[in-house]
Amino acid sequence: MNDTKLVIVVPCYNEEEVLHETTRQLTSVVERMEKDGIISKGMFLYVDDGSKDATWRLIEELSGSNKRVMGLKLAHNVGHQNALWAGLEWAAQSEFDAIVSIDADLQDDVNAIVEMGQKFNAGFEVVYGVRNERKTDTFFKKHTAQMFYKLMSTMGGDVVYNHADFRLMSRRALQALVAHPERNLFLRGMVRSLGFSQEYVYYSRNERFAGESKYPFSKMLSFAIDGITSFSIKPLRLITSSGVLFIFVALAIICYALYEYAVGHVVPGWTSLLVSLWFIGGAILTAIGVIGEYIGKIYREVKRRPRYFVEKMANIE
User: Looking at residue 215, what is its pLDDT?
Assistant: First the structure.
């Protein structure tokens, strides 16, 4: 008999509209897995990331009526990655052998967890949930997502294309992950860097069941910058390359200016001077901004502030 114990970690932020349906679908999945002998026990842990609605009240109610539901309430909103980390950190020290992470909005197909469990039983320690299509995404969301993955690849980041944070990890792999001390979390890249035996499960992405997306363009852009600067120094090298390029451009302009002086064309061209000043000024400010991003990350790391604080727990001994 299979003795695998599974826990599903679900970060939540203002998800009162979807929690009942999420619980129903997750319960159905783990019951099927238990019946088929894929796992011996299935639970799920909701992590409330400082929600402003009734999310935590619903989690408490669900944990009272459904023995599979557990809950962690964070004292303050710390962001998706830190909330997920809180759940994973708890799971790494628990009795569970396999840990799945999934968002509460049901856009990721919960039925893919069944195949993930089968892959785990076959010996794989990290199983990625990968979207095989993005038909439910808007034109803007689809193309900005594609730009993100291409940019990450160009900048040297090793991420799985069309994979978010829907994955299964063994307890051993998860313990290796939570051993990372950094505060600037980009879990997609961090998990990929662990190694261990890896496999993929492909699924079709659904529309959000209810509520609104928690990732507007501003957060997507910030997340992309965090991902690039957390796993690559190529932006800094691009600054160096740009500096060398500007030196050659400057030499060419100097040669041109000396030639114009030699042939007697000494009337100054204010247009070219103005354009040059604006261009070089913009390049300098961009370079300072990129360097500042890395310095800011160093600042956050050396302060070593806690990632989160747990305020309450539900159905956790």
Answer: 57
